[in-house]
Automatic annotation (TrEMBL):
This is Ceramide synthase 1-like. The chain crosses the membrane at residues 57-76, 109-131, 151-170, 182-199, 283-310. It comes from the Eukaryota. The keyword Membrane applies. Pathway: Sphingolipid metabolism; Lipid metabolism; sphingolipid metabolism. The keyword Membrane applies. It is found in: Membrane. PANTHER family: CERAMIDE SYNTHASE 1, LONGEVITY ASSURANCE FACTOR 1 LAG1. It is a multi-pass membrane protein. Keywords: Membrane, Transmembrane, Transmembrane helix. InterPro entries: Lag1/Lac1-like, TLC-dom. Its main location: membrane. The lineage of its organism: Eukaryota, Metazoa, Chordata, Craniata, Vertebrata.
Amino acid sequence: MGRPPQADGNISVRTVEPMPGYADLITRSCSALLSAFNECRGCGFELSKRTLLENAILTWSDIVLFAVCALGWTVLRQALSAYIFRPLGRWCALQPKDASKMPESVWKLLFYTASWSYSFYLLFFTQYTFFHDPPSAFYDWKRGMAVPTDIAVAYLIQGSFYGHAIYATLHMDAWRKDSAVMLLHHVITLALITFSYAFRYHNVGILVLFLHDVNDIQLEFTKLNVYLKNRAGVYHLLNDLVSNLGCVSFGTTWFWCRLYWFPLKVLYTTCVSSLQSVPNIPFYFFFNTLLFALTLMNIYWFLYILLFVVKVLTGQMTEVNDVREYDIEGSRKTALHKKQHERPHHNSWKERTRLKNGIVKDKRLKNGIVKDKRL
């Protein structure tokens, strides 16, 4: 079992606990949760209220900065969409349905790439050891302890973005079949960010954000290539290939980061290691309940991914479409689901259009005449 630093004279010795397996996670987490529940005497609303007032620290300056930055993200997205993203979609001659969704994907791709890169820097290029030694996230924890500036910046960026994302899901993003779950995800994520900052559980919070943002990068990159593979009425082979590879990479890293590393590094740490370092840690059940809810949503979306793969393998889909919209009724009727040989073809390595006797047929009946378009 991992344990907090132990003094040996003037030398601090840390024992890095090997990452557990799923069996250890289940048995030790259940044991820790049950033990904490049995030891909870007088738990209820009054105790929770007192614990919240005694341990949670959130200043008015924190709240004002959050509100200003959340508004800033919304204004910045609207400006970029109006002056850069939408004109770019028109310049690429995307299909109308794809052009309407492209600004959302470009915006999210840029944000998640920047935010994940910053968390990557914090975990692998600074003194923090939370990724390789997750229990260290709770070493030396104290109520109201100072939050390091670099981590505080990451929290401000992420918290304000998810505040913006709640508004954006309702009023700016394209509505999808899982948008209600996405909205719930944003609410839970914002609650985790806010309360983990207030209770000074920011160390493990950085690890949670790192393990989730990488999948959003791959998702939005894949969706952009889905949109770009049919533009100006021409099929682009390279974008189709990249979207297929992106889909495989997305599903693989989703499982690895969210269903392997996240439970074994984060859930084990918050359920088991936190009690070893900080007995009677405040709001233990509250935070673990939110993290388990996040895990269930990760499993829910992974089932979407598996169903998507089954549809492709069984021929119910001929190609990769928007990975969050593949089961929307009527999507098969769009040009994205036509077979490749039925569309103009463009090989991105060598621009060319596939011809039939030098003529592309345009079978539009007008005044009883079928016209041919010569190139």
